[in-house]
Amino acid sequence: MTAEQKITPSSEEHEALLPAIRKADLPIEKPPIPSYEVESEDTLKEKKALAASKNGSPNALTGKTLPETALNIGMQILTQPALTLRKSVQVASEVASALRGESPNKPDRRDRRFKDEAWRENYFYHALAQSYLAWRKGVNEWVDESDLAEDDEVRARFLVNLLTEAASPSNTLLNPAALKRAQQTNGKSLLEGMSHMVQDMVHNGGLPSQVKDDSYRLGENIAITPGKVVFRTDVLELIQYIPQTTEVYTKPVLIIPPQINKFYIFDLDKRSSMVEYLLSQGNQVFIVSWRNPGPEYRHWNLETYIQNLDNGIDCLLDITESDHVNVVGACAGGVTLSALLGYYAAKRVEKVSSATFLVSVFEASGKSLMSLFANDKSVASAKERSQRQGVLDGKDMARVFAWLKPNEMIWMYWVNNYLMGKEPPTTTTLYWNNDSTRLPAGLHSDFLDIYEANALATPNKLKISGMPIDISKIKVDAYFVAGQEDHLANWQGCYSSAQCFTGRKVFVLAGESHIQCILRPMRCKNSSYYVGSYQPERPEDWLALAQKQKGSWWGNWAVWVQKHGGEMKPAPEHAGNSYYPALDNAPGQYVREK
To answer: Which of 287, 336, 420, 580 is the most exposed place for a label (fewest CB within 10 A)?
Structure first.
């Protein structure tokens, strides 16, 4: 039996194995290319109908605000006094144990807040840390054992997490590492910390900076892969990279990044550049660089972006003398790609050979942490604000996203920058993450409509240039990648989005978070991922049957892309052609706009 056969049992075998959990490692020399199972349109409609009956109307936004969640918790405390008393006694008992020098609670091994030896060896600090951990555990157990409804429990856990992580003694000047540094620097670290805090109050909305603004220079030590801008509109630049092999596949690869971020997440440095990797595999690689719009472009909407993408695709097809392109869309870029493919399907235009969706959710009937706090009023307010300002500032979104992971995105930098008086760390990923862009009000409104009305997954709900969009009519082969720890695009939502397509598809689940699951270069030997092409209705059933592979999913994907790349031909000697000459060196002009 071949490796491919091991990875893709028949449908009958899968159905028989559904109750079992199969997550065994398979030592495979080359990344396998899964076989495909194509769902009929009738099957897809049945799934959609079932999902609708379970989830209710996609237009019903019933989220609660943080104050409403806090009030709900307060009511639960009043109505469940026995539970509250029992947990209070438990916490008091564990605090007493801590005062006796015992250690009933251990921090998570990934929790770096209490790594200083004083938290373990000094009586005062040991008791303080243990008392905090006991209280934190007791509060979370109270949420677990309360009578809160499922959605209310998730909301309560989020709010409790915000409060307990903020209350950590490591976030105060009692932090032993901060006191030691203050002593070593004769108080200079405290002055530096105060200076950093004042600067962040003025320039960073009051949140601690994650990176120094002058850490990197575009085109010099980040986004350095050689290429040329071969097409430019008011909305985008199209960059063609210089081939790195003597022969290339006929069908090029186009990467569509999210509009709220800049494209060079795919070209951070040579060690983690997806662009470099694709080039090394013999692909002709193009990437979109979005313009950073100001309020004067408030009218740009999804249709604007689709039309400009279509023109860009015509350009690269002309340059490469190809009839088809393999397209990659990430996050909001994946949402845009699904609308573009739906537009092509409506027009009966065939320009795309395959589509890859990275951490993209465009089927909005499921629940996510963000959706649990959204309601009709909050969505209308968000639209009104961006219309008034003309744009949605990416920095505002970044601040919201930071609170979804407060320890990693806020308090770690609070301690480093303010208490320790150090400069923020310097990493390419953090630099990119803080180099955000703005969304024009029109596009922001369209994205909210897609989310609020589930417009992409609902046939003919969305229209592009007057054409009704039905993504179930998209027949191109598709490859989906999700992150198991993704706090922005949960993997179950990515899986549900994959079910909207009736073509042949592969789903991959990496173990990392939103960005890190994308940045998995082949050198990441300790990584692993799950892959499967047979896709039952429930994501949990898919995971039970998917095969776990060691290493990066890039290798599996590269072989899949090559299958859709066409014949090999001599690599072009220069970028562009006579009709589309090179306009500028990569990374272009738009990426530099602030």
So the answer is: 580
Task: Identify whether 81 is preceded by a cis peptide bond (ω within 30 of 0).
Answer: no
> What is the residue range of 95's domain?
66-167
Count other Cβ atoms within 10 Å, centred on residue 137: 17
pTM for this structure?
0.85
**Cα atoms in the Cβ-side hemisphere of radius 13 Å centred on 182:** 16
Could you tell me whether strands 477-483 and 505-510 are parallel, antiparallel, or unpaired per DSSP bridges? parallel
Cβ neighbours of 309 (radius 10 Å) = 25
Strand partners, 463: 468
**Which of the residues 331, 494, 500, 517 is marked catalytic?**
331
Residues 6+ apart with CB under 8 A from 3: 26, 28, 29, 30, 32
Tell how far CA 316 is from the center of its chain: 27
Q: Are 575 and 476 found together in one domain?
A: yes
Phi/psi for 356 (5° steps) reads -115, 130
CATH number of the structural domain spanning residue 515 = 3.40.50.1820
What amino acid occupies position 186? N
The owner of tokens 């063609």 is: 240
> What's the CA gap between 339 and 326, in Å, rounded?
16
Q: What is the pLDDT of residues 251-306, one digit of tens each?
A: 999 999 999 989 999 999 888 999 999 999 999 999 999 999 999 999 999 999 99
Q: Give the integer Cα–Cα distance in Å for 295 and 297.
A: 5
Q: What 3-state class would DSSP assign to 12?
A: helix
Does residue 517 carry a catalytic annotation? no
Q: How many domains does the chain have?
A: 2
Same domain, 354 and 485: yes
Q: Is 369 exposed, middle or buried (0-12, 13-18, 19+ CB in 10 A)?
A: middle
DSSP state of 484: T
